[in-house]
């Protein structure tokens, strides 16, 4: 009975939580859109009209940001707001996370690597950039240093270390599968892994 219950929970929980998360996001955005429609005095014609309005506004914003003057004005406003330390910290973090979703035209530099430890064991890491930032490269000893992220299990956080490229063992393993392996401490093994 315990195994059957565990098997049911293991299979249903991820699906139910994922559907709940996306449904909650839909309801929240639909409510925001309905609020905007109410402000201009328009009644929502159908369920999801608010969501469609928000999605449309985001699409139009994307089009507007492709126009140089609007992007310049937004950049200027962003630079002015970045003068406030608390805003800079919060906004910078959210912008960095959002930029992970938008990789248009940028090569995927994340490569899975193994790094040998002093005791002979290996740690799975990810090259996140092809080179270390210039201030760090200037401070490091001579060599080809790259930032490697060592993801911590069951956490979004990780530790970034600078490792010589010669000390890395490149692994033909997708970033997504390797990240899933690291996040779950190896419990989640995909078929590709």
The succession of helices and strands, N to C, reads HHHHEEHEEEH
User: What is the β-strand count?
Assistant: 5
Alpha-carbon Rg, integer: 23 Å
Distance between the termini: 31 Å
How much of the sequence is in beta strands?
15-25%
Unreliable parts: none
pLDDT average, as an integer? Answer: 83
Treating each run of at least 4 consecutive H or I residues as one helix, how many helices?
6
Shape from CA axes? Answer: flat
**What's the story with the biggest beta sheet?**
5 strands, antiparallel
Number of domains: 2
Folded structure, characterized:
The chain is an alpha+beta fold and 193 residues long. The chain has 2 domains: 2-101, no CATH class; 111-183, no CATH class. It is 52% helix and 15% strand. It is built from 6 helices and 5 strands; from the N terminus they run H-H-H-H-E-E-H-E-E-E-H. It has helices spanning 2-39, 49-64, 68-81, 85-101, 134-139, 175-183, and strands at residues 111-116, 122-127, 145-151, 158-164, 168-170. It has a 5-stranded antiparallel beta sheet with strand order 4-3-2-1-5. A hairpin with a 6-residue loop joins strand 3 (145-151) and strand 4. Helix 1 (2-39) crosses helix 2. It is flat, with a radius of gyration of 23 Å. The two termini are 31 Å apart. The relative contact order is 0.07.
């Amino acid at each position: 009975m315990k195994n059957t219950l565990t098997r049911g929970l293991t299979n249903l929980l991820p699906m139910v939580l994922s559907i709940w998360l996306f449904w909650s996001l839909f309801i929240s955005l639909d409510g925001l859109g309905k609020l905007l429609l109410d402000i201009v005095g328009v009644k929502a014609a159908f369920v999801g009209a608010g969501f469609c309005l928000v999605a449309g506004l985001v699409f139009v914003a994307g089009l507007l940001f492709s126009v140089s003057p609007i992007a310049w004005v937004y950049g200027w406003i962003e630079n002015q707001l970045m003068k406030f330390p608390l805003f800079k910290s919060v906004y910078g973090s959210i912008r960095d996370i959002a930029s992970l979703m938008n990789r248009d035209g940028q090569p995927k530099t994340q490569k899975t690597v193994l790094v040998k430890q002093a005791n002979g064991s290996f740690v799975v890491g990810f090259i996140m950039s092809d080179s270390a930032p210039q201030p760090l490269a200037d401070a490091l000893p001579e060599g080809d240093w790259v930032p490697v992220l060592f993801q911590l299990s069951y956490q979004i956080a990780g530790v970034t270390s600078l490792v010589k490229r010669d000390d890395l063992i490149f692994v033909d393993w997708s970033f997504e599968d390797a990240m899933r392996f690291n996040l779950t401490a190896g419990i989640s093994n995909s078929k590709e892994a």
